[in-house]
Specification:
The protein has eight helices and 13 strands. With 301 residues, the chain is of the alpha/beta class. The protein has a six-stranded mixed β-sheet with strand order 10-9-8-11-13-12, with helices on both faces. Strands 1-2-3-5-4 form a five-stranded mixed barrel. It has a two-stranded antiparallel sheet with strand order 6-7. Helix 1 crosses helix 6. Bound molecules: guanosine-5'-triphosphate and zinc ion. The site of zinc ion has 7 residues, from helix 7.
Length: 301
């Protein structure tokens, strides 16, 4: 029997589309809205709900978040997911990926206190493997784990490796289009396609089935979140202090610049610039830092 209208129930937000949400409450999926114009609910949020009908509810409040991942442009920020413990960036031997997106995702993870890993898919395309490994070396040196898999050529080994990595965690997968993220999700979550159809019917997203973030519950303490591919990963919301700390290789040099308020851009006696000069910090990473600092100064909200 459905709970009475006045009981507060606890659910997990498993999909968001505009200001419409789908929450998992036990075995049920409830269509939810927020009160008023609030739209600060993220996939992964634990929410307190009050039912308005058998399969609908209003989100009364959001439980305390362990983590919150978000991105933003000049005008507003966009919640990606709440309560995730790790972020997997999916790349492939082919087609090519951009370092910009990888580093932005790493910065987002660092500033949210989320562990970041890189998944290199399509290792079966051996001709492109050495070059790809070489490109990922910069991240390996920074200490980010890199997992090599092949969703297509070694599905069983790939699934097994993932299940170990995901166990007990809440993991969000992100990646550029074509990297094989959908193939990996389908391996890990056997009924993913059915779940997506169910969710998009409930949220009435029409044909835009791949444009929303959704959460798959694997077990009580294990969840996987699939996020749509995006071209832009703006991080306008990060302050200068957050940015310099999100580049983990800057850490040994922070506080050692000549000027205490050094921006690490052109200042004389800058310890970060000296480390770039000596090859200790990759120029590509410092360039992205400068770019992100520029973006955050353009923030209009
Ligand atoms: N050779 C090879 N191809 C793969 C592998 N995994 C996926 N692919 C192929 O790569 C292409 C993209 O895979 P998808 O799973 O659709 O990739 P996606 O990252 O979800 O991309 P979008 O759906 O565009 O976001 C498909 O043609 C897959 O068949 C792999 O391990 N090896
Ligand atoms: Zn400096």
């Amino acid at each position: 029997m459905a709970a009475s209208k006045n009981t507060v129930e606890i659910g997990t937000v498993i999909a968001a589309h505009g200001r419409h949400y789908l929450a998992q409450v036990g075995e049920e999926k409830l269509q939810c809205v927020t009160r008023g114009k609030k739209s600060d609910v993220a996939v992964g949020d634990k929410v307190n709900l009050k039912r308005t009908s058998a399969n609908q509810a209003v989100i009364e409040s959001i439980g305390e978040r362990k983590t919150l991942l978000y991105r933003s442009d000049q005008y507003k920020s966009k919640l990606l997911a709440a309560n995730v413990t790790q972020l997997f960036i999916v790349v492939a031997t082919e087609p090519g990926f951009t370092d910009d997106l990888i580093s932005r995702a790493l910065v987002a993870a660092e500033s949210a206190g989320v562990d970041a890993h890189i998944v290199l898919n399509k290792t079966d395309i051996v001709a492109a493997l050495p070059k790809t490994r070489e490109r990922l070396q910069v991240y390996r040196k920074l200490g980010y784990p890199i997992h090599e898999v092949s969703a297509q050529a070694e599905p069983d080994a790939t699934r097994d490796a993932f299940l170990v990595l995901l166990q007990g965690k809440s993991t969000i997968l992100i990646g550029q289009s074509g990297m094989g993220k959908s193939s990996l999700i389908n391996l890990i979550v056997p009924d993913a396609d059915i779940a997506v159809r169910e969710i998009s019917a409930a949220l009435d997203t029409g044909k835009h089935t791949t444009t929303f973030t959704r959460l798959y519950t694997m077990s009580d303490d294990t969840a996987v979140i699939d996020s749509p591919g995006f071209q832009e990963f703006g991080l306008y919301q990060l302050s200068e202090g957050m940015l310099e700390r999100a580049f983990r290789e800057f850490a040994p040099h922070l506080g050692k610049c000549k000027f205490y308020n050094c921006h690490h851009l052109t200042e004389p006696g800058c310890a970060v610039l000296a480390a770039v000069e000596s090859g200790e910090i990759a120029p590509m990473r410092h360039q992205l830092y400068a770019q992100l600092l520029h973006e955050s100064s353009q923030k209009l909200y």
